[in-house]
Write a structure and sequence with these properties.
- The complex is a heterodimer of chains A (278) and B (312).
- Chain A is of the alpha/beta class and 278 residues long.
- Chain A has helices at 47-54, 96-105, 116-129, 145-156, 175-192, 226-229, 232-239, 269-277; strands spanning 9-18, 21-31, 36-41, 62-67, 70-71, 79-82, 163-167, 195-199, 212-217, 220-224, 244-248, 251-255.
- Chain A has eight helices and twelve strands.
- In chain A, helix 2 (96-105) packs across helix 3 and helix 2 packs parallel to helix 4.
- Chain B has 312 residues and is mainly α.
- Chain B has a domain at 27-214: Orthogonal Bundle (ABC transporter involved in vitamin B12 uptake, BtuC), CATH 1.10.3470.10.
- Chain B is 79% helix and 0% strand.
- Chain B has helices at residues 2-9, 12-17, 23-29, 31-53, 57-77, 81-99, 103-127, 132-140, 148-167, 169-177, 179-184, 189-211, 217-220, 222-230, 234-256, 264-299.
- The longest helix of chain B is centred in the last third of the chain and has 36 residues, at 264-299.
- Classes of the chains: A alpha/beta (278), B mainly alpha (312).
Amino acid sequence: MTTTSDPVLAVRSASLTLASRTLWSGLDVDVREGEFLAVLGANGSGKTTLLRAVLGLQPLTHGSITVCGRPAQRGSDLIGYVPQERRLEPPAPLRAADLVEMGLDGHRLGPGWFEGRRRRQRVAEILAAVGASELADTPVAKLSGGEQQRVRIAQALATEPRLLLCDEPLLSLDPRHQREVVRLIDDRRRAKGTAILFVTHEINPVLPYVDRVLYLADGRFRIGSVDEVMTSRSLSTLYGARIEVIRIDGRIVVVGVPDHGDGLDSDDGSYATTGSAS
Amino acid sequence: MTTFAVASSEPGLWKQIFNFDSYGDLLALLHNSVIAGAVLGIVGGLISVFVMMRDLPFAVHGISELSFAGAAGALFLGVNVVVGAVTGSVLAAVVIGALGVRARERNSIIGVLMPFGLGLGVLFLSLYKGRSANKFGLLTGQIVAIDTPELSWLIGIGLVVLASLLLMWRPLRFASLDPEVAAARGVPVRLLSPIFMLVLGLAIAASVQVVGALLVLSIVCTPAAAAMRVTASPRATVALSVLFATVAMVGGTLLALGSSIPISPYVTTISFACYVGCRLVGSRRERRTSMRRATEEIAEPVPETAVPAHHP
């Protein structure tokens, strides 16, 4: 949105068929420097698989993916990855600073016991950048969900990536921590122009920051601004069923998505969010 | 009164457990055992950190029973016992690594393999006509069995395990603790799993020689389990784990030298004592920090309420 330079991420006519099921085909996506692209869709629509393909962990059936002009490749320093919040069992020898350290050079061979001061300084800088300096020595198992995701972002940013992949990083966080985490990601792309690919099933927490939305459903997709994609007509066409998109108080509520179960809880965030907050 | 009677009527009991008569001569004669203990202490202390991080204590037990079967088979056939132990161990590690990718699957496979290995071992030992001390030693540990060629085998295996662990240390740690992000960073998470099982198999085969198949866990699990109770620092965990394992191995060997009892009760008792000590220290510290955290949380601002979306 800010520049006209080459896209950080370029997905070209990409198709992926897994076990004779086509997750998506003919997918064309560009994410430019500093752009925030939200990836929405029901469970099993291939959101996470798209991230895996960008990470070079999942080969495409057709098409190509390039990151900064280079073909998607596993272990690229150009990409940072923020996973879902997950509890670590308490007796794990891992503090917040160690998690960041692993993001920095955890893939290298050797024990790395003697890299000493320079690396420790670097880890401290990275933690400070996300306002988590005081957590450095806290065991990861003792961090709260919000704290853990803050540290996760630090870990993902350790290599100064140009593209940040977020896989449902807000799941199981309360609204206040959801906002904190999203704001942190938003700050980063504004300050450094990091492109953001943000997989979520709740659009509302990221709504104020999203530039464009990629909506995946039943092997088809829609991409465009929130106003273009998140309408009753657009989603009804996409799903081939009647979908109501309602806007209340600056929030978006999607009703009638033919998903597993009742169709209320998996695609739209507001019910789940209010449910947990009430 | 009764205890006194027992003690006085059997003056040898204490002497049986702790006997330091002509200790200097014994030490000179059996110093190889002390070296073996030190090697196993270092190897066990290091690998137990990964055994704990990857949640593999049960696999260790399973592999050690098959290692025992291999060693017993070798004893029966009159071939090198270390080679037998390594063969059994590595076979078990490969099967467990290949078939048991998920924890639940893995545990059931181990549960199936373990009694089979033990039974096979018992069969070989029953058929074996040699010295019975050798038989028992494979299960409960031994000192006398460490003659010089065996010691070189032990040191050789120890070095291979050590070198492999140090080489793959960081990626293995990343893959063990944080597999999802490790894969995203290009760590070959799935490849590391069987490689680690192989290295673990070697370490277990070496340990079986000294502490015995039934008690391998005391040096390939307990030391790190103890260390993780008192520290979350990766480096301190490794240092403490190696320290505990070495103290248990060398200390156990030194205590066992003069006595008529196998080495294992000494090793397991020291190892267990380290664990109990660490648990006590750890839980005291836990209580203190949780109290501090609780007071901090009271001071934190109350989270603001979300905008309610009304629905029927």
